Amino acid sequence: MVTTVLPEISLPIIVGGALVDAVNPCLIGVLLLLITILFKTKQRRKILTYGITYTIGVYITYLVGGLTLLGIFNAVREVTIVSNILYGIIGSFVMLAGFLEVKDFYWYGRWLSLSIPKRFVSMVETKAQSIHTNYGAALFLGFIITLIELPCTGAPYLAVLTIISQNRVDFGLAFFYLLLYNLIFVLPLIAIIYLGYTGLGLKRMEAWRQEHRGKMRLIIGVFLLILGIWIITTVYDVLIPLTIFTISLIISMAIVQRYFYK
User: Fold this and answer.
1) Number of domains present in the structure of the chain
2) Which sign does the torsion angle of CA 188, 189, 194, 197 carry?
């Protein structure tokens, strides 16, 4: 282990993490499904009101979850040995998530992927049918789907929370960071709801998502790998070998995809 100078958490890290999290194909895909269901009601007002209520459910769930995890990380942080082990585990998980995202750039959806478990897909579709019944159902749906989507969307948030904890940010500033992060996180949801309300561009947006989902995975993956390396190297002196390993593995993926296995 080594004593290192922590890079300061800053707005670019918060905004960057939130933007990367927000463009996740899983998040966009589920909301497009919900809006399509609402659109069938032929009541544009319901698309707007229930869609916003669903988004509030997502926002509150993500915010409360972030504050809870941050509290746990801050408590564990005071025990150096335990915190170092925890940061190593989290950093390794974030890097694994990054590699899986990069893998999906080359082989989308094959083998192990960060996606909504298949057993939950039909559940999402079933529960989505109830979104226009009342506001409570829409709010609860935001809570449930946020939990279901965590394997697909949670890694950037986990990385940012860890870095906030490592930097010993005081509660007031940390709370502001999480409010901002989650606002940015739901902005694409608000944009899609507006498009559904106006009746414009939903099919085009779904086509765009399908076409660019691999590139979105690559962006997310590279960001997660950088954050994962950052988290690990604040407590372990492995920056150079870890960076070389990461770059080598990505290059290997590209070579295998190009010449051996498409």
Assistant:
1) 1
2) positive
| Structural domain contains residue 23 | yes
| Residue 90 domain flag | yes
87 token code pair: 């940061």
As a whole number of angstroms, the distance between CA 33 and CA 145 comes to 12
Contact indicator for 51, 195 with CB cutoff of 8 Å = no
Which residues have CB under 8 Å from 231's CB, separation 6+? 87, 90, 91, 94, 159, 162, 163, 166
* 4 inside domain: no
Q: Look at residues 1, 183, 29, 230 and name the one whose alpha carbon lies nearest to residue 120.
A: 29
Interval 120-135 mean pLDDT: 63
Q: Residue 217 is encoded by which pair of tokens? A: 């995975």
Name the pTM for this structure.
0.78
Residue 228 belongs to domain spanning = 11-259
pLDDT at 180 (0 to 100): 93
